[in-house]
Amino acid sequence: MRKTIFEKIGGEFERQGNCLIPCLALPPEKEQPIGLFGRQHLDYLKQCRKVTYTNLLTSGRLNTYLADIDKQAQERFERLIEGMKQAQGITERLKEENALEWLGRMNNIRACAREIVNEEIIYT
What we know:
Number of helices: 6
Structural class: mainly alpha
Shape: rod-shaped
Strand order of the largest sheet: 1-2
Organism: Petralouisia muris
Number of strands: 2
Distance between the termini: 50 Å
Order of helices and strands: HEEHHHHH
Protein name: TnpV protein
């Protein structure tokens, strides 16, 4: 009996009834922690970029890709916060003198930075 292309590259079959079914398995992927930004991008891929999601999943690169996106987004988020704090003159002294004002301004900066990261990295 001639070998199929699948058998020539080392694939194996298992018999189920009268049929031979190829034994397919995803390549092993190193598990990496994925944070908030990575999970948001995963949801975006599942909803809006289904082909990209499927390609990454079946090639075994999804977790690595999401961990990289998460790292890029987190670094950009932190840089934006630091830059905005300096531009608006928010210091530790303000935190000591008027904690509520400092908190309000920091929440505003975080919200602005999150919107920028979402627009630039997560939803593209």
